[in-house]
Amino acid sequence: MTLAARLLLGLVWLLHWLPLPVLAAVGQGLGALLHLFGRSRRAVALRNLELCLPELPAAERARIVRQQFGWLGRSLLERGLLWYASPARLKRLIHVEGDVHLAETSPQPVMWLVPHFMALDVAGAATQLFQQQWVASIYQAQSNPVLDAAMRRGRLRFGGGEVFARQESALPLVRAVKKKKAAFFNLPDMDFGARDAAFVPFFGVPAATLLAPSRLARSLQMRVQPVLAEMLPGGRGYRVRFLPAWTDWPSADAEADALRMNQWIESEIRRNPSQYLWVHKRFKTRPPGAPPLYPGG
Question: Does the CA dihedral 190-192-196-199 come out positive or negative?
Answer without folding.
Answer: positive
